[in-house]
Amino acid sequence: MIEFKNVTKRYGDKVAVDDVSFNIKEGEFFVLIGPSGCGKTTTLKMMNRLIPLSGGYIYFNNKPISDYPIYEMRWDIGYVLQQIALFPHMTVRDNIAQVPQMKKWNESDIDERVDDLLSMINMDPEHFKYRKPDELSGGQRQRIGVIRALAADPPVILMDEPFSALDPISREKLQEDLIELQAKIKKTIVFVTHDITEAVKLGDRICLLNEGHIEQIGRPQELIQHPKNDFVKQFMGDQIEQYETAKLNHLSQYGKEISADVIEQRGLSIFDSEDTVEQVYAALAEDDAVAVKDERSHQYLELSRAAIFNYLSQTRERVGEKV
Ligand code: ADP
Ligand code: MG
């Protein structure tokens, strides 16, 4: 559906994208990932002609993108940015209605579409459609940004680090939303992130960029199990290690509150919430649980051995689920 053929982008002497070729299939969730400055945004923006190429071709449905009328093309490709810029003086409804209005949809079709989209992300239309952006939380604004990109039903959606400005809880919620949404709409999504956990969670395939060239393209599991070179190994390796060295505070949802008296009675070892799962392994060989002290609330949580292994197996499964 989208094909890059020997695409190069130079800014002066600086080669931002270096002879890149790949193919994105229809309905695919394709993730572009890599360190900051590796060329992700440039690659994305070339797809809807926000940036001209210095060399090579990009084809959209087998036709060079330069053959499409530029505005139509932009309207046919949804675009979501890190900081969604909703028009502050407009209601949620009017923000979502932008592209359909440019495409001259009639207002009743637009209303129907707005209601459908809001319902799709579980935001009650009656409750939300006449609100202004400043009457929404950051996470809600970002969700509106995502459905706004879908408004005119474009076949392709480009997303540039759409969740990276959010707190971890909202980010996870939006990732879940997007997985659910994609299952319903089955669009071709090109998603840029520098967060490998996000990439592994969302991507059908991952394209790992480094200094403007492709290090490896494949399913998440392929990159983890068969990294092509040391760069890929290190990039993915950190990911696996991250699970093994997960900080105990990431597990707080698996814990149960416990009092200091009970900890003493049971003779449980006490750890700090910044300690890692690895550090508690030894203690778990002796006891069936450990206690974790939360520095801020001064409360203790009991983390059972079962809860910790359950957490680890779930995170591992997530890494492996795309096999
Ligand atoms: P990423 O999104 O992966 O962080 P970018 O695609 O934004 O990377 O940038 C790739 C490289 O091109 C970087 O080295 C960046 O500094 C450079 N670059 C991006 N935009 C411009 C520009 N308008 N002018 C000059 N250099 C740029
Ligand atoms: Mg970028």
Automatic annotation (TrEMBL):
Give residue ranges for domain ABC transporter: 2-236
Q: Name one GO molecular function term.
A: ATP binding
Q: Which Gene3D superfamilies match?
A: P-loop containing nucleotide triphosphate hydrolases
Q: Does the keyword Transmembrane helix apply?
A: no
Q: Which Pfam families match?
A: ABC_tran
Q: Does the keyword Nucleotide-binding apply?
A: yes
Q: Which UniProt keywords apply?
A: ATP-binding, Nucleotide-binding, Transport
SUPFAM superfamilies, per this entry?
P-loop containing nucleoside triphosphate hydrolases
Q: This protein's superkingdom?
A: Bacteria
Stated family: Belongs to the ABC transporter superfamily.
What's this protein's name? ABC transporter ATP-binding protein
